[in-house]
Design goal:
Length: about 280
């Protein structure tokens, strides 16, 4: 069944087939046999089967009913009793409920490890959704459009550094792992891909007093990334007016531009606004 499956554009399906790349991805995860691994979007099982070879149990979440049924026939019936296939949408899935199911009757439960080749069209909202379950996630290994991975892992004061960099690096340690050429997929996407790791902080290096305000500050700043802080926040529609003196009192340069601010600087800015 899987061999005749036609990739569906509405699901953003591009199936990985390069065995060398698959091996590199699985090796980069550094799996232990008793890990609680959850694969999002297994597709035709390119990574699923190598993962199963290293694990006692594996849970996969697949939106496409045909692909989920194909996996049940090809892998589920192939003596892999530890494979759980869930047909559902990863974008609105409750990972706390899944975690409680996975750790039932375990005395010293591990956290979940999430892996997947994510559809590019849902990647950013899915990452933010998963971060709301960071307390039960050990790490996440994903393959995405290289441009997006560059932004997630970018260093401050670089061209790729932006809102996604700050938000992801506030919640997680980020690692760029490997580049994947478009020829490794069927059909080949128009862009190069990359694999990266997100490791949620158990204790954040810096803590925003109000993470909603923090997110608004970061968004507002990068909506006007070519302007100075003084110009951006002087008459913001979403936030109180901030004077040059406010910025100086908080230890920030009023003439600085958003791409020059570290995650710590953005936390300082948002905490200052709350204290006004």
């Amino acid at each position: 069944m899987a061999l005749s499956h036609q990739p569906r554009k509405r699901f953003g399906q591009n199936f990985l087939h390069d065995k060398s790349v698959i091996t590199q991805i699985v090796d980069s995860i550094r799996i232990n046999r008793d890990d609680l691994v959850v694969e999002i979007g297994p597709g035709m099982g390119a990574i699923t089967e190598p993962l199963l070879a290293e694990l006692d149990n594996l849970t996969v979440i697949e939106l496409d009913t045909d692909l989920a049924n194909s996996l049940r026939i090809r892998i589920g019936a192939n003596s892999h009793q530890g494979l759980q296939i869930i047909t559902g949408n990863a974008l609105n899935f409750n990972y706390h409920d899944l975690y409680q199911q996975l750790i039932e009757n375990q005395e010293n439960p591990k956290k979940m490890r999430i892996v997947g080749n994510l559809p590019y069209n849902i990647s950013t909202p899915l990452l933010f959704h998963l971060l709301t379950f960071a307390d039960v996630i050990q790490d996440m290994h994903f393959m995405l459009q290289k441009e997006v991975v560059d932004r997630i892992t970018a260093e401050v004061n670089s061209k790729a550094y932006g809102r996604l960099s700050v938000m992801m690096q506030y919640f997680c340690h980020t690692d760029y792992l490997l580049t994947v050429p478009n020829g490794a997929f069927n059909p080949p996407p128009k862009v190069t891909s990359a694999v990266f790791r997100l490791t949620p902080f158990v204790k954040k290096p810096v803590q925003a007093n109000n993470e909603t305000i923090f997110a608004i500050v970061v968004r507002e700043a990068f909506n006007h990334r070519r302007k100075t802080l003084r110009a951006i926040f002087k008459k913001s529609a979403c936030l109180p007016n901030i004077t040059e003196k406010n910025l100086i009192d908080w230890g920030l340069d009023p003439m600085a531009r958003p791409e020059t601010l570290s995650v710590t600087d953005f936390v300082t800015l948002s905490n200052g606004i709350i204290s006004m």
